[in-house]
């Protein structure tokens, strides 16, 4: 199944409109190209709708949020909804400031998201108006573990039912769920949190996956999450073999996305349904 | 001839003022350093003129265009004209949105550009007010091929006559022309479109080339285009040898610009006059 | 001594709020992660104070300065002062434009900085209202040499007395001083000026060092400067061994920060007190 998802992205070259932060934007563009998509970045309100119109999907990321681009997010999101383009939200740092939390909530009100992707702390902030966010990392108290996984899955399914979006919760164990069905993914490596942008890159790549597989968004998300995590494992091995560090790890990660075959993804993916 | 162009850049260390997009800005700075130039990025209207004044050349790139920086582009461009500094325009995505097309047209009205560099779709948008732009890539219908090359060269020469600028049209075959003379370049590799920023990097590097060789802008552009393309070929070979992917390819590309000798450039350049 | 400084950063994982330029922001985030810190970038005035509040230290960098973020710098700086968080200023390009010089001076008036880090030209601009800045590099006439080192150290100590900040002057020889004590550092390699961002990265990393070692800021700065310079030497060696260029050098530099042990830092550091 993951195989077909991946091949669809490579075959269809989905063009993705990204309104995203300036910290990891270059990595997002390069991972979109690596996975077989095509990126366009545009955040001025005077062109947001037009750019979305020529694209296949939209990726909204609120890292380095600023007041000038919030209207662009709303305009692009509404236009994407009108055109039935898939839209993903990455609520980076929701819970860390009032601006981010209230903007994320406003976006949820104004736009129907196909996918919402965050760590457990960010997702909790959106879901229950609580949750503590230490910077952009999930609060340790809110960690998803083998012990609380069933509760977490239930919570995520409920949030999906409430929003109509597929929810991706990233962490040591990732959860991907709609209101009825959930997957947990055990791919990935702790090294991935030693570079900036793995979360942002996952959102950008997922935008390509749901755009090229818009008849099956849940499994498209699953494929993207497995791919990112498995690429992290491979990149980590290569980093150790070559005595490299986190900067080169970033290159290995994107390189792996570029080179991995769909058969390798099928073999390397570690997921189960819940 | 290319040899002297390259050596002049390395000898003179031209300081280039860049008003450019936030996606590829880091790559632009690093390629400027790699080729022997020196970058300064500044886009606030309160300092645009002053910064241009202390520089030797100006690079204006309209990717991630936003309304705050448009006045800065105009101010810097006019000041550069006043000081007879070379100015290059990269109309990224012209044709993709009204904002980009109209801004590019406004810039052409207000500023005398030394060089305009784009793909065939962007250049057509500026030249004839038509042209279709799919994201930031040239429309496939507008591709320059061996069959239509003479027509394309004629069109480019005419646009040069109209604007007074050297025109660079990038693609599988690149065209560099002023109103009287044209070159076509066959360097480069398809891999270059698998990373973000090769176009932006070419513009930034070309700014350094025309600044250090301002008595011969056409051939300075030719040298820069050959260098970028040839570096792409070398970087691709190294990528294949090392089993790397697109992220590492970007590093190899910039590394090659850093290390290539002027003799190697002369030998590797594949161009002819038209 | 440097050993303990380094270990404190790795043990405490200081969360650093960065208001910085969009050219080198990704490198700043990755070097913060490499050294053991944790980055958050936020520059909107609506969240600047809140973000600073959840962080341990603040890094203000005026590269690609724009009028929207200046109020955010002031708000965040005042809040950090109120909370006794360490704050570092990197006055990138002070002296190159009125906007940068006057903003740097305004920041000095409004905020008590723990550390101010620049090249000799930038520091002179702030200190005596003179100094010439060629782009973002120190003016050659103002170079610190073995001949004028005593005068330079005296000048730096005086500027520290005036501002209450530890002053870092970067160059072939680095000077780190408070009003009473100074160190000079001979680590580093000329190659470091062939990539963008070594200065910005040093400021970001130093923010982590002073935050994790806020009882001894002078030596924390010394450790950070030695680490950066020594990492540059190691990265240069690796670059030569592998036939790489400046882009890969950047990766090696950050990788080295990630991998270097505190014992290696102690052995490699080349400093003396003055």
UniProtKB/TrEMBL annotation, chains A, B, C:
Broadest EC class assigned to this enzyme: transferase
**Where on this chain does ATP bind?**
117, 170
Instruction: Set out the biological process GO terms recorded for this chain's protein.
Output: thiamine biosynthetic process; thiamine diphosphate biosynthetic process
Q: Which gene encodes it?
A: thiM
An example of a GO molecular function for this protein is: ATP binding
Q: Which UniProt keywords apply?
A: ATP-binding, Kinase, Magnesium, Metal-binding, Nucleotide-binding, Thiamine biosynthesis, Transferase
Cofactor(s) annotated in UniProt: Mg(2+)
Reaction(s) the record says it catalyses = 5-(2-hydroxyethyl)-4-methylthiazole + ATP = 4-methyl-5-(2-phosphooxyethyl)-thiazole + ADP + H(+)
Question: From what superkingdom does this record's organism come?
Answer: Bacteria
Residues annotated as binding substrate are: 41, 197
Q: What does this protein do?
A: Catalyzes the phosphorylation of the hydroxyl group of 4-methyl-5-beta-hydroxyethylthiazole (THZ).
Q: What InterPro entries does this protein's entry cite?
A: Hyethyz_kinase (IPR000417), Ribokinase-like (IPR029056)
Alphabetical list of HAMAP family matching this protein: Thz_kinase
Which pathway does this chain act in? Cofactor biosynthesis; thiamine diphosphate biosynthesis; 4-methyl-5-(2-phosphoethyl)-thiazole from 5-(2-hydroxyethyl)-4-methylthiazole: step 1/1
Which protein family is named in the record?
Answer: Belongs to the Thz kinase family.
What are the leading ranks of the lineage? Bacteria, Bacillati, Bacillota, Clostridia, Eubacteriales
What protein name does the entry list? Hydroxyethylthiazole kinase
Origin organism of this chain? Anaerofustis stercorihominis DSM 17244
One Pfam match, by short name? HK
List the EC numbers from the record.
2.7.1.50
